[in-house]
Amino acid sequence: MRKEIRLSGFGGQGIILAGVILGRGASLYDNKNAVQTQSYGPEARGGASKSEVVISEEEISFPKVIKPDILVCMSQPAFDKYSMDVKENGYVIVDKDLITIPDDYKNNSKVYRVPFTEIAQKEIGLKIVANIVMLGALTKITNIVSKEAIEKAILDSVPKGTEEKNIEAFEKGYSY
Amino acid sequence: MRKEIRLSGFGGQGIILAGVILGRGASLYDNKNAVQTQSYGPEARGGASKSEVVISEEEISFPKVIKPDILVCMSQPAFDKYSMDVKENGYVIVDKDLITIPDDYKNNSKVYRVPFTEIAQKEIGLKIVANIVMLGALTKITNIVSKEAIEKAILDSVPKGTEEKNIEAFEKGYSY
Questions:
Q1: Which of A12, A82, A116, B10 could make an S-S bridge to A133, C-beta 3.0–4.6 Å?
Q2: What confidence score (pLDDT) does residue B42 get?
Q3: Distance in angstroms (rounded) separating the CA atoms of residues A35 and A53
Q4: CA nearest A75: which of A98, A96, A51, A97?
Q5: Helix (H, G, I), strand (E, B) or coil at A164
Q6: Is the pLDDT of residue A104 over 90?
Q7: Residues A48-89: pLDDT tens digits?
Q8: Which among B34, B40, B59 has the least Cβ separation from residue A27?
Q9: Range of the domain at A33
């Protein structure tokens, strides 16, 4: 089963690292195939950041996300741009404090609002781990990768000395 | 003009970060479009790492590298796997001390041997910046992005406090 994930927000939120961790977790530790893509175009020059991951048990011939099964938004412009473009019964997961969902917003996906950035700041004391809190929530909500796989991929990917804080951030997001 | 770049080596050499920097530099600071892809499959589970970047003045509809214009190899298995698969008149750039080029190796590309890892270790004192030394050499040899663009992208992308060492590493690779 091919699954498409789009992570979106601003530059500096660690969107790319989150995509790398997701791809690594799925492939190295869950034994699937994964392709992870960053597209840089005019919107990147405006400060937007987007990372896409395709996960599949089969070989992945087309690496771009066509219509995501899972959309994560960590900025309002990202939500405004991508929120109508999710698969039926897919997941939309947004940073609760950064995104206002319009009253008339409606699509056929499940919407989750999690305060990634607030959890990172208040519970870990590091706003910069909001991306890892997000991965915790994403893992719990969607089950797209196993908890163990993502935790191992986090340990592989974050700077030395920050492992503990990052795992703590992941757990906070997971158990929110 | 579409240009395809494949960076390959082992996990832990910073291949992915190098791809991210290249994509960012080309798009944010050279005003082109760029797509940067990591594929994780069975070979990643063996410790291999590969990052691909497509750079174009046009929109990029197909993000995968078909036949690279530029191939960088930072491990022998990467060279053995990819070295026959480069565009005519393309560039093959390898870590001089990590790769043995067989006597009978021949293709229609220009081959450069640069001791990325040795320069990183001996001149900067940090083996981990070999990827940035590599970007310096790549920029000088291929001119695929401007020096200024890559330097700005490095400053955006490396951990705070390591900027100076990384720029130094870039310069060493550039002027080798």
A1: A116
A2: 73
A3: 6
A4: A98
A5: helix
A6: no
A7: 899 999 999 999 988 889 999 999 999 999 999 999 999 999
A8: B40
A9: 3-175
The runs of H, that is alpha helices, within B52-129 are 76-82, 116-119
Tell me if B20 and A24 make a contact (CB, 8 A cut-off).
Answer: no
Helices within A7-146 (DSSP H only): 15-24, 42-45, 76-82, 116-119, 130-142
| Mean pLDDT across A13-41 | 92
How many whole angstroms separate alpha carbon B92 and alpha carbon B149? 22
Q: A39, B60: Cβ pair inside 8 Å?
A: yes
What pLDDT, on a 0 to 100 scale, did the predictor assign at position B106?
A: 81
Q: What token pair was written down for A27?
A: 């492939």
* B64:A63 CB<8 A: yes
With beta carbons less than 8 A apart as the criterion, state whether B75 and B48 touch.
yes
- B115 to chain A, minimum CA–CA distance in Å? 25
pTM value is 0.89
Q: Do B27 and A40 touch (CB under 8 A)?
A: yes
ipTM of the complex: 0.81
Cβ contacts (< 8 Å) between B60 and chain A: which residues? 39
Amino acid at B24: R
Residue B21 maps to which CATH number? 3.40.920.10
Which residues of B fall below an 8 Å CB-CB distance to A? 11, 16, 20, 23-24, 26-28, 31, 33-41, 44-45, 59-60, 63-64, 156, 159
Q: CA B137, CA B153: separation in Å to the nearest integer?
A: 16
Beta strands, E only, chain A: 3-10, 33-40, 48-56, 70-73, 91-95, 110-114
Nearest CA in chain A to B30: A45
**Smallest CA–CA separation between A125 and chain B, in Å?**
18
Q: Which residues in chain A are closer than 8 Å to B35, comparing Cβ atoms?
A: 37-40
Nearest CA in chain A to B60: A39
pLDDT at position B127 over 90 = yes
pLDDT tens for residues A127-163? Answer: 999 999 999 999 999 999 999 999 999 998 888 899 9
Place of tokens 């063996």: B46
